[in-house]
């Protein structure tokens, strides 16, 4: 059977190479990837909604409020699946894609095609306070990566197809094809040229058509703008921009703070127990933290904050607007806590939709504060709810254009384009100056594995240290005599540098040919002088697995050396020469800009 399959694939390859050009084939694949990513998104949503609906029928939330125990059940199911089926550590969906693009040539394990379809609905459906967008993008990326591998697509085109998958997934979930394209460009640092533009456009269209086919005209936000932008409100939108910037910084720092709090809990069982109980307590106090939170956003948009807040222990005081404001501000604060706790406890999900929930609550709070300040000002609470979402997306994701076009598209118009630009721009500028990297990119940036729009840095990130390490250097030992060194190493080497190592291959230093040149022809010294006499420190050394290619390049620049030794935890591995490094850089640059 495998032989017949291989023969069939070979026939398909031959037919494709003969009848379809590479450019046309990429366009076809982008459509297919968009459809499959859209289908994955629809599947994720439907499975999650099915779980939520089943739990609502089985447990009457309004009468006994047992829902606060559900997250720990969902996290337990995810833990069992990961331990006994997946058998690998879970990584953040978007971060793992960025890593595959920068260091794994766009190759993603085929298991990721179905893993997120299982664990994300279990997490969200049972009340985990995370979103489905990240898992949808990860599933689409895995599909596109393995489709590219099947058809022997090169790494650069495979990366483009992964970006197409993300566009298809986002377009399907939000029915916003333009924002989906911009997200792929902003988050995946894709160069927007006509070569990449058309595949992204085709994938985005395919994704949104898939959503329309399976979901009809059902939209996430059933809202139409009735109150247009008024110039007199400009100052308030600036204020909202500053507020969302502060919230974005809080969101990011809270994420890493809680992740660090969970690190001492080595056992996944302890993380699950602590995280599940913590989420349960927060859900009991603040029910809108349950699941993704789209119902909460929609209720705020239609002005029904009572329904948005649901049943809480503070229902007797809900007629007081300041209690309502306090509860909504509590959602702004605790959504980030609930989301991060869900992920730290072992759950699977994304941060994009929780960002929107937090932004909607903050925008609504700001509007209510203005309207109830007693100063005679009146603003649209619905508009501020929408623009608050844009401000948080711009700040947390460092994606201002995505934020602007996403909110504009899901509201069906551009009536709020000016305030969207004001708030998103201010939020992005302040946050970017305070926080260099996003939740997606911080760890990758610290290890030098992040692709950016900086072409020089991107090329260095794509380079692999293994490809430039040279091992044809004759090593010597410190106890060797000068005569032994000349006979065993110098006479047999074509290089002018000799690494000094001990019996365990630990790197001790170097000897240059110039160091021994004046002693080479004095035979009287052959047995009296040892190698350790000439050994000296290298100008610097490259730490394998720790130094990024940017760091390696910087070390050459700082030292002015032509060769630097490579060590792995002190063990000698070889040398990197400046000439070979620059040659590899030029070669990668040509590939990158084709």
TrEMBL record:
UniProt cross-references to PANTHER family, sorted A to Z: CHLORIDE CHANNEL PROTEIN CLC-E (PTHR43427:SF6)
Record-linked Gene3D superfamilies: CBS-domain, Clc chloride channel
Domain CBS: 469-520
InterPro entries from the UniProt entry: CBS_dom, CBS_dom_sf, Cl-channel_core, ClC, ClC-type_chloride_channel
Keywords: Chloride, Chloride channel, Ion channel, Ion transport, Membrane, Transmembrane, Transmembrane helix, Transport
Entry's localization field: Membrane
Pfam families, alphabetized: CBS (PF00571), Voltage_CLC (PF00654)
UniProt KW Transport keyword: yes
Residue ranges of the TM segments: 24-44, 64-82, 160-185, 197-215, 235-258, 270-290, 321-338, 345-366, 414-431
Name of the molecule in the record: Chloride channel protein
Keyword Ion transport set for record: yes
Membrane topology: Multi-pass membrane protein
């Amino acid at each position: 059977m495998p032989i017949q399959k291989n023969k069939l694939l070979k026939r398909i390859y031959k037919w494709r190479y003969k009848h379809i050009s590479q450019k046309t084939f990429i366009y076809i694949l982008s459509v297919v990837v968009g459809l499959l990513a859209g289908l994955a998104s629809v599947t994720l949503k439907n499975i999650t909604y099915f779980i939520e609906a089943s739990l609502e029928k089985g447990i009457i939330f309004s009468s006994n409020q047992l829902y606060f125990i559900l997250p720990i059940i969902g996290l337990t199911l995810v833990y069992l699946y990961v331990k006994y089926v997946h058998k690998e550590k879970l990584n953040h969906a978007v971060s793992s894609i960025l890593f595959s693009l920068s260091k794994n040539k766009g190759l993603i394990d085929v298991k990721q095609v179905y893993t997120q379809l299982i664990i994300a609905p279990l997490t969200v459906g049972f009340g985990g306070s995370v979103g489905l967008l990240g898992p949808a993008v990860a599933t689409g990326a895995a599909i596109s990566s393995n489709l590219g591998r099947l058809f022997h697509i090169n790494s650069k085109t495979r990366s483009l197809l992964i970006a197409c998958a993300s566009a298809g997934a986002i377009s399907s979930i939000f029915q916003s094809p333009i924002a989906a394209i911009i997200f792929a460009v902003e988050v995946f640092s894709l160069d927007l040229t006509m070569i990449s533009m058309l595949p992204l456009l085709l994938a985005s269209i395919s994704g949104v058509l898939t959503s329309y086919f399976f979901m009809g005209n059902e939209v996430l936000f059933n809202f139409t703008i009735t109150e247009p932008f008024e110039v007199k409100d400009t100052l308030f939108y600036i204020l909202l921009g500053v507020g969302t910037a502060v919230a974005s910084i809080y969101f990011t720092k809270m994420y890493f703070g809680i992740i660090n709090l969970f690190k001492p809990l080595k056992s996944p069982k302890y993380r699950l127990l602590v995280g599940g109980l913590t989420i349960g307590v927060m859900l009991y106090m603040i029910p809108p933290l349950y699941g993704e939170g789209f119902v909460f956003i929609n209720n705020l948009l239609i002005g029904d904050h009572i329904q948005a807040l649901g049943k809480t222990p503070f229902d007797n005081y809900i007629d007081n607007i300041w209690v309502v404001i306090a509860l909504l501000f509590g959602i702004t604060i605790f959504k980030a806590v609930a989301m991060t706790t869900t992920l730290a406890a072992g759950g699977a999900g994304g941060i994009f939709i929780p960002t929107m929930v937090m932004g909607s609550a903050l925008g609504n709070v700001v509007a209510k504060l203005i309207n109830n300040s007693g100063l005679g000002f009146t603003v649209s609470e619905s508009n501020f709810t929408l623009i608050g979402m844009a401000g948080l997306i711009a700040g947390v994701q460092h994606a201002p254009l995505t934020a602007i076009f996403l909110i504009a598209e899901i509201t069906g118009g551009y009536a709020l384009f000016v305030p969207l630009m004001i708030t998103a721009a201010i939020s992005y500028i302040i946050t970017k100056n305070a926080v260099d990297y996003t939740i997606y990119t911080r760890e990758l940036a610290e290890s030098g594995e992040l692709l950016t729009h900086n072409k020089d840095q991107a090329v260095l990130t794509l380079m692999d240290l293994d490809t430039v390490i040279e091992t044809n250097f004759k090593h010597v030992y410190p106890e060797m005599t000068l005569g032994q060194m000349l006979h065993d190493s110098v006479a047999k080497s074509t290089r002018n540098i000799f690494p000094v190592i001990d019996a365990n291959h630990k790197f001790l230093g170097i000897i240059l040919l110039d160091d021994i040149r004046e002693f080479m022809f004095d035979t009287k010294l052959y047995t009296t002088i040892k190698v350790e006499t000439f050994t000296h420190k290298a100008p610097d050394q490259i730490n394998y697995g720790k130094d990024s290619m940017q760091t390696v390049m910087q070390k050459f620049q700082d030292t002015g050396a032509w060769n630097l030794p490579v060590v792995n935890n002190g063990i000698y591995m070889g040398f990197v020469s400046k000439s070979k490094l620059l040659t590899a850089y030029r070669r990668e640059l040509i590939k990158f800009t084709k």
